[in-house]
Design brief:
The chain has helices spanning 14-21, 27-35, 51-55, 62-67, 72-82, 96-105, 110-135, 192-205, 230-239, 242-245, 258-264, and strands at residues 43-45, 88-90, 148-153, 165-169, 212-217, 220-226, 249-252, 271-273. The chain is α/β, with parallel strands linked by helices. α1 (14-21) runs parallel beside α5 (72-82), α5 runs antiparallel to α7 and α9 runs parallel beside α11. The longest helix is centred in the middle third of the chain and has 26 residues, at 110-135. Residues 1-91 form the MGS-like domain.
């Protein structure tokens, strides 16, 4: 069967999906394949059309966006993931070498196949969520899915005995939040409480254009000050509550210079956030 409709229909065919979905442990399935001259497919590796990359690169026409919606790819992924006891499904290039090495040593066990199937369904779910977000015109639709991707593990949750991780929302309609763009330069892993203080500090600083310093502790402002001289702004912020500031978070909306850094260094803080450090 040839591909048709400018390539819109290529893999949507019983010869493809029969070879993927047939259960190897059911003789009747294998008999049907043989009767219809369909070969089994043991590994499905799919790279989807770059829909998300296309619609987030700038102004894109609706026609271009629609042509980058993959139909056959997700269908093969779902078919293979459903039949994971018999099929290997791979959607992440990071898994190529790992799986290849295991195949060379013998085989991939059921537990690993199940993990790959989970990853495959999650991959397609995020892809479909992006398409739904792009086509949505309502602020509050009747149904909505939220796609999240883990940025990194946190040192701990609200308390040291709790585990936590930081996830970023994958939304093609909204730019990435400032909190997600922070780059850690040094120090231990960030904790959940650190992130809460970062968020509170950034929300406060967003209201100021003049050089401003905020000192946060458990989402409360221990001090806040603006001054043309950033070091002076820090000193005034610290004067708000120098006792509570200990172990908190210092945030600046300006590049931290050497003079300000020396002032900050006189007190212990969990973290310091700024556009840059000179």
């Amino acid at each position: 069967f040839p591909e048709i409709l400018d390539g819109r229909v290529k893999t949507l065919h019983p010869a493809v999906h029969g070879g993927i979905l047939a259960r190897r442990d059911l003789p009747q399935h294998l008999a049907e394949l043989a009767k219809n001259h369909i070969k089994t497919i043991d590994i499905v590796v799919v790279n989807l059309y770059p829909f998300i990359e296309t619609v987030t690169q700038g102004k894109v026409s609706l026609d271009e966006a629609l042509e980058n919606i993959d139909i056959g790819g997700p269908t093969m992924i779902r078919s293979a993931a459903k039949n994971f006891p018999s099929i290997l499904v791979i959607v992440d290039p990071e898994d190529y070498d790992i799986i290849l090495q295991k195949l060379r040593r013998g085989s991939v066990d059921l537990a690993e196949r199940k993990k790959l199937a989970h990853k495959a369904f999650q991959h397609v779910a995020i892809y479909d969520t992006a398409i739904a977000q792009y086509l949505s015109e309502k602020t509050f639709p009747e149904e909505m899915t939220i796609a999240l991707k883990k940025a990194y593990d946190l040192r701990y949750g609200e308390n040291p005995h709790q585990k936590a991780a930081f996830y970023l929302e994958q939304n093609v309609r909204q730019p990435q939040a400032v909190l997600a763009s922070l780059k850690q330069i040094s120090g231990p892993e960030i904790s959940f409480n650190n992130l809460l203080d970062f968020d509170a500090a950034l929300n406060i600083l967003s209201n100021f254009t003049a050089p401003t310093v905020a000192i946060m502790k458990h989402t409360n402002s221990c001090g806040l000050a603006s001054h043309a001289n950033l070091a002076e702004a820090y000193r005034r912020a610290l004067a708000g509550d120098p006792v509570a500031a200990f172990g908190g978070v210092v945030a600046s909306n300006q590049v931290i210079d050497l003079a300000t850094a020396r002032e900050i260094d006189q007190t212990h803080y969990d973290a310091i956030i700024a556009p840059a450090v000179s």
